[in-house]
Design a protein that fits this description.
CATH topology of the largest domain: FAD/NAD(P)-binding domain
Strand order of the largest sheet: 3-2-1-4-16
Number of helices: 19
Helix content: 25-40%
Number of domains: 3
Largest sheet: 5 strands, parallel
CATH class of the largest domain: Alpha Beta
Strand content: 15-25%
Number of strands: 16
Structural class: alpha/beta
CATH architecture of the largest domain: 3-Layer(bba) Sandwich
């Protein structure tokens, strides 16, 4: 896919990947073999009819391609940009066994981006017809990330009145606060939210479930409740000096930049912490986002420090390649032992230890083992910890009858998404732990189907 040049894009927050032209899309679609047993569909978490939508692209019937996408995926413009297709649909493409798989994600993005939305119903369902409003029936969706948006869209397009309760001042959840605009432009998310509002979905912002509103209160006002609050509580290293000025969780750092628009300071009154030598700890997509953001915010050097090797990095290959092209430095087989401060308690360095790989751990990856006597110090004035997230306890602790598993995530019926509380459903990262947008969207859709079946007696 055409991209901005690396030495240009690392100084702006515009989208890196520029998207396919029609000619690009037709060339790529012509590579599909239309297998009798499409393994790509088996690899898709929500079973998008991939060969069918690609055939429609080949025939230049983009409205039909969009309709087919929307039968399974509520957020194709989003998922086409941020989902790890190389591990899902494209990872199962038979062409990938001897060469390059069909670029399914890029075709998905092309179809979604070029689709001309005639009505809000069409954007949500792929057709120009929505159900008539059902009087007296309403649904509450807690959170406004991919799972809640998908559930809200399905329910609203089937005639239910939907209210979305969001803790932050802007809807979109992790799509807005977590993913930088150079990977997912905010107008793509805003388009989805605007379409929901045109369907009659009401947004209630600055509303923290478990504090300003309780699930029990929502059940008194609505016929069903969907919980899609994500898993946004950051994990930390647990090493000395982690509370110094200049050490941030990736959540806080990216939220300031993305949601707070700190990259447009002083146009937006959100100051950012600027570092000249930045160290990022972790090697997932969030770590890549933080490292690439720090470069764009003016850092002289950005290091990604990881205790395993590049082969074990969980980030998407494309994100790693883009980061390296832009100038991010990868320091493999190192582990932080402590952070050191200057006289003003500001971060000035990190003590690292060299590692080597031992036997595989429970994840199947080889376990990193410390090399004795290999400690060394690296200058840094901004450290970003990107080690993943866990469930935020605010809502869960305030909802007594909600069953949780040993990791603190909500237990649901896998087929319907219903929790231990009747008429309360849940989906996304608050159920699975941190996962992909497509999995969260699929869970929201499944719950929406179940809610409509119960309240309306129909799918």
């Amino acid at each position: 896919m055409p991209c901005q040049p690396a030495n240009v894009r690392n100084h702006n927050f515009d989208e890196v990947a520029l998207g396919y032209t029609l000619e690009n899309a037709l060339d790529e679609a012509s590579r599909c073999l239309h297998c009798k047993k499409p393994l790509c569909v088996e690899g898709c978490p929500v079973c998008v009819p991939i060969p069918d939508f690609i055939r429609a692209v080949k025939e230049q019937n983009l409205e039909e391609a969009y309709r087919l996408l929307k039968t399974a995926n509520a957020l194709p413009a989003v998922c086409g940009r941020v989902c790890p297709q190389e591990n899902q649909c494209e990872g199962h493409c038979i062409l990938g066994r001897k060469g390059e798989p069909v670029a399914i994600g890029r075709l998905e993005r092309f179809v979604a981006d070029t689709h001309i939305t005639k009505t809000a119903c069409e954007q949500q369902t792929g057709t120009n017809a929505c159900a008539t409003r059902v009087q007296g029936k309403s649904v509450a969706c807690v959170g406004s990330g991919p799972s809640s948006l998908s559930c809200a869209g399905y329910c609203a397009s089937h005639g239910l009145k939907v209210h979305v309760y969001e803790a932050l001042h802007e809807p979109g959840g992790v799509l807005v606060y977590g993913i930088p605009s150079f990977r997912l432009p905010k107008d793509v998310v805003h388009s989805e939210v605007s379409a929901l509002q045109e369907l009659g979905v009401e947004l209630h912002l600055n509303c923290v479930a478990g504090r300003t509103v309780q699930i029990s209160e929502l059940l008194q006002k609505h016929d069903a409740v969907f919980i899609g609050v994500g898993a946004g509580l950051p994990k930390f290293l647990g090493v000395p000096g982690e509370n110094l000025v200049g050490v941030f969780s990736a959540n806080e750092y990216l939220t300031r930049i993305n949601l707070g628009r700190a990259y447009k300071f002083p146009e937006y009154d959100t100051p950012a912490f600027h570092g000249k030598i930045v160290t990022v700890f972790g090697a997932g997509n969030v770590a890549m986002d933080a490292a690439r953001t720090a470069l764009r915010m003016g850092a002289d050097e950005v290091h990604v420090c990881y205790r395993r090797t590049r082969a074990e990095m969980p980030a998407r290959h494309e994100e790693v390649e883009h980061a390296e092209e832009e100038g991010v430095i990868f320091d493999m087989l190192v582990n932080p032992l402590s952070f050191k401060a200057d006289a003003n308690q500001r971060l000035e360095s990190v003590v690292l230890q060299r590692m080597e790989l031992g036997e595989p751990d429970e994840s199947g990856r080889r376990r990193p083992v410390a090399v004795p006597g290999s400690e060394f110090e690296m200058k840094t004035d901004l450290a970003i910890v990107a080690l993943g997230t866990r469930s935020n306890p605010i809502l869960l602790e305030a909802t007594e009858d909600l069953e949780k598993n040993k990791w603190g995530y909500i237990v649901v019926n896998e087929e319907t998404g219903e929790t231990s509380i009747p008429n309360v459903y849940a989906g996304g990262d608050i159920v699975t732990g941190a996962a992909t947008v497509i999995l969260a969207a699929g869970a929201g859709r499944r719950a929406g189907i179940s809610i409509c079946e119960r309240l309306l007696g129909t799918r």
